[in-house]
Design a protein that fits this description.
Layout (H helix, E strand, L loop, with lengths): L6 E3 L5 E3 L2 H10 L11 H11 L4 E2 H13 L7 H17 L4 H9 L15 H17 L10 H11 L2 E3 L5 E3 L3 H13 L3 H12 L3 E3 L1 H6 L10 E5 L5 H16 L3 E5 L9 E2 L4 E2 L3 H14 L11 E5 L6 H6 L15 E6 L1 H8 L3 E4 L13 H13 L5 E4 H15 L3 E4 H6 L28 E9 L4 E2 L4 E2 L1 H21 L5 H10 L2 E6 L1 H7 L7 H29 L32 H11 L13 H7 L12 E6 L2 E6 L1 H9 L5 H9 L12 H6 L8 H12 L10 E3 L4 H14 L3 E3 L2 E3 L12 H17 L16
Parallel strand pairs: 1-3, 7-8, 8-11, 11-12, 12-15, 16-19, 22-24
Antiparallel strand pairs: 1-2, 4-5, 6-16, 7-16, 9-10, 13-14, 15-23, 17-18, 20-21
Helix pairs in contact: 1-2, 2-3, 3-4, 4-7, 5-6, 7-23, 8-9, 9-18, 11-12, 18-21, 21-22, 21-27, 27-28
Keywords: Allosteric enzyme, ATP-binding, Deoxyribonucleotide synthesis, Nucleotide-binding, Oxidoreductase
Subunit structure: Heterodimer of a large and a small subunit.
Family: Belongs to the ribonucleoside diphosphate reductase large chain family.
Length: 799
């Protein structure tokens, strides 16, 4: 190295001259098991050297080395694994391999400013660690930390791994990923070391993950492990509204996402007897909730506070409600930090379809509409209409088109079907369910005395594929699901509840939520195009297995601990399970003995009122390197922007397939970038790969809705169903929402996703070639533009 070589500041403060050969060896040491034929260590070393600044700190050099590898991931997916390994080995140098030492650091943590104890590990968990540290240490396998891709590791580093304050006022990570999994297992199971071992192994080998709040908080002094809280407006009064607001603030502080219904809050202009004045309605009230969501964050920026507000479309303030998220308009009429959802009764959909009239009502003068559903709702609503109690009668389609305008501009409101949610619920014996949660997959009963709660986990489906045989291992999925069901049931008892109404509800009803991630990965590993009939069958059978295993596990827990308190008179108590509540349900696979299980459930009960609720899995699927939940891939190459940074992402399966066929090179990479991650129009790629790697924009949305319906008969809560339209029109959205409603879905749509006109990934692509591609795409788009059809048809079927 020449005299002008940069200086490196070591961790002990000493300096040394930069040596490129050491960097090269650093790359080579993490290459075991990776495809060395496609990894260019010389190129990486040269890029690190070029990116150096003089007197760079050693930890910053480590960061540069890992990022240099990871940012080459669009050339080969193993660069992402290399980047993850470089991050992990760097973390291992700075942390202790001793579980006992790490837990001591966390338990004995003292704040720098006040010098007061601020333990990050609960006393009972610390006691278990002290008594059993040798056995627990023997369970840990740190080599599993090397399985994280760069993107997954950076997600853990940003938010999940515990830190302590240093004397310099900085926060230092002291927890390794494996230690995090052990903390979670201990936080859930305590002294039950057999279940600790099983939970740790399944999580650390990537079979499943608990939800983000569980990973954040399990094993800590305030183990708030729940994801979702569903809050009922206490009362239509100043006391009731501010009691509700305080409850939302306290829950948000504890990292809970909130679903809130406001159907019972009187409309603008409604008379207030106590003051002889009139109400300002929902909009000013929701602006107060908006400011609370902004003010109360979730643990120093880990996650923003988030409230989803639910309203039925008969409410007289519905038009103002639908404007609250819009980008234009007066700020004093907007509340853009909240999320909005409509809780739509069947009667409204019927009126829209028949071009009928719709009466807007004030819950102050038309009480009880949110307290009933189905035929009872229709009788009460039509009685109020006949009595002339409504505020205003308009065409139902006026409300409908206001909904569509909002969805085209903002992606929302979320749409859920009130009657499907109630008629197909195992909690229907408790009363009318009035809202869902922040992500539209939780459907649970609420009241002023009960705030519904749900604890979640997602199963990593690709781990159950036998790649050689192209088969899905249902027996293994069954076994793993039973363990996760036990875990989530245990979380209910070990959980910290920020409000008493949440504890009361969870102890009475004990709902849990099982979801999935990596369904798209699973189909690719089994060589099944997402839209194929075989994929549709596998989709339904996976959820049948999950539901069967969860019901059986919950039944076994009921044998040990008794059924949940409100089991009597529930559908399950009468042998009615989720698929029995669906009209025209597809036949079960024959793999599982449902008749025998129903008999046992009627005899001994189940421990949990609800079991399955596929959620978005945005963060946790990033950790495990899977595609989100049950969605198709959105692109085959794209840039992902998250809290921890901006990262290129490549469909690793596509790259491996193209390598196997001798088609992967720089030119092919640039072609895929030029086509925004699509391969449908690239000459030279075989048709079977084009079918296998269709993106969500190239899949008829009717297929996504059909698959949601098929798995829906095994989902006793609901599912976070996004729909995707490149350039949505009112006709297209109407078609999709009516098709889903008539299919019996509970969630019509979570987010309506649209595609940006320009894409930031088009870097280093020849401008002339890019213009040719855009002209070709424009021509094909003109030729294949879909036409508007009637609401009962899905407009995207043939696109």
């Amino acid at each position: 190295m020449s005299d002008s070589a940069p200086l490196i500041i070591k961790r002990n403060g000493e300096t040394q001259t930069y040596d490129a050969s050491k960097i090269r060896r650093r790359f080579e040491r993490v290459m075991e098991g990776l495809d060395s034929d496609h990894l260019d260590v010389d190129m990486l070393t040269e890029n690190v050297t070029r990116g150096l600044t003089d007197q760079i700190r050693y930890d910053k050099l480590d960061e540069l080395v890992a990022q240099t590898a990871a940012y080459s991931v669009t050339k080969h997916p193993d660069y992402g694994r290399m980047g993850g390994r470089l991050c992990t080995t760097s973390l291992h140098k700075q942390t202790s391999e001793s579980l006992l030492e790490t837990f001591r650091l966390l338990h004995d943590h003292v704040t720098v400013q006040t010098h007061r104890p601020a333990p990050l590990i609960a006393d009972d968990v610390w006691e278990v660690m002290q008594q059993h540290h040798k056995e627990l240490q023997s369970m840990i396998d740190y080599s599993r930390d090397l399985n994280f891709e760069f993107f997954g590791y950076k997600t853990l580093e940003r938010s999940y791994l515990l830190r302590i304050e240093t004397g310099r006022g900085e926060m230092r990570i002291v927890e390794r990923p494996q230690q995090m999994f052990m903390r979670v297992a201990l936080g859930i199971h305590g002294r039950d070391l057999n279940n600790v071992r099983e939970t740790y192994n399944l999580m650390s080998m990537g079979f499943f993950t608990h939800a983000t709040p569980t990973l954040f908080n399990a094993g800590t002094p305030k183990p708030q492990m729940s994801s979702c809280f569903l809050v009922a407006s206490k009362d239509d009064s100043i006391d009731g509204i501010y009691d509700t607001l305080k409850e939302c603030a306290v829950i948000s502080k504890a990292a809970g996402g909130i679903g809130l219904h406001v159907h019972n809050i009187r409309a603008a202009g409604s008379y207030i007897a106590g003051t002889n004045g009139t109400s300002n309605g929902l909009v000013p009230m929701l602006r107060v909730f908006n400011n609370t969501a902004r003010y109360v964050d979730q643990g120093g920026g880990k996650r923003k506070g988030a409230f989803a507000v639910y309203l039925e479309p008969w409410h007289a303030d519905v038009f103002g409600f639908l404007l609250l998220k819009r980008n234009t308009g007066k700020d004093d009429q907007r509340a853009r930090d909240l999320f909005y959802a409509l809780w739509i009764p069947d009667l409204f959909m019927k009126r829209v379809k028949s071009e009928g009239r719709w009466t807007l009502m004030d819950p102050n003068t038309c009480p009880g509409l949110s307290d009933c559903h189905g035929e009872a709702f229709e009788r009460l609503y039509e009685r109020y209409e006949a009595e002339g109690r409504g505020v205003k009668t308009i065409q139902a389609q006026e409300v409908w088109f206001a909904i569509l305008e909002s969805q085209i501009e903002t992606g929302g409101p979320f749409i859920l079907y009130k009657d499907a949610c109630n008629s197909k619920s195992n909690q229907k014996n408790l009363g009318t369910i009035k809202c869902s949660n922040l992500c539209t997959e939780i459907v649970e009963y609420t009241s002023p005395e009960e705030t519904a709660v749900c604890n979640l986990a997602s199963i990593a489906l690709p781990r159950f594929v036998d790649v050689e045989k192209r088969e899905f291992n249902h027996q293994l999925l069954y076994a793993v699901t039973k363990q996760i069901t036990r875990n989530l049931n245990r979380v209910i008892d070990r959980n910290y509840y920020p409000v008493e109404t949440a504890r009361r509800s969870n102890m009475r009803n004990r709902p849990i939520g099982l979801g999935v991630q990596g369904l798209a990965d699973t189909f690719i590993l089994m060589r099944l195009p997402f839209v194929s009939a075989e994929a549709q069958r596998v989709n339904a059978e996976i959820f049948e297995t999950i539901y069967f295993a969860a019901v059986e596990s919950s039944m076994e827990l009921a044998k040990e601990e008794g059924p949940y308190k409100t089991f009597k008179d529930s559908p399950a108590s009468e042998g009615i399970l989720q698929f029995d509540m669906w009209k025209n349900a597809r036949p079960n696979s024959g793999r599982w003995d449902w008749a025998s299980l129903k008999e046992k459930v009627m005899q001994v009960g189940i421990r949990n009122s609800l079991l399955v609720s596929p959620m978005p899995t945005a963060s946790t699927s990033q950790i495990l390197g899977n595609n989100e939940c049950f969605e198709p891939f959105t692109s085959n190459i794209y840039v992902r922007r998250v809290l921890s940074g901006e990262f290129p992402v490549v469909n690793k399966y596509l790259v491996m397939d193209l390598i196997a066929r001798g088609l992967w090179n720089e030119q092919m990479r640039n072609e895929i970038i030029s086509y925004n991650g699509s391969i449908l129009n690239i000459d030279g790629i075989p048709d079977d790969l084009k079918e296998l790697y269709r993106t969500v924009w190239e899949i008829p949305q009717r297929k996504l809705i059909d698959m949601a319906r098929d798995r829906g008969q095994y989902i006793d809560q609901s599912q976070s169903l996004n729909l995707f339209l490149q350039s949505p029109t009112s006709g297209q959205i109407t078609s999709m929402l009516f098709y889903g409603w008539e299919a019996g879905l509970k969630t019509g749509v979570y987010y309506l996703r649209t595609k940006a006109a320009a894409d930031a990934i088009k870097f280093t692509v020849d401008a002339k070639r890019l213009k040719e591609i855009q002209e070709k795409e424009s021509s094909q788009q003109t030729m294949s533009s879909p036409r508007v059809s009637q609401p009962e048809e899905c407009l995207n079927c043939g696109s």
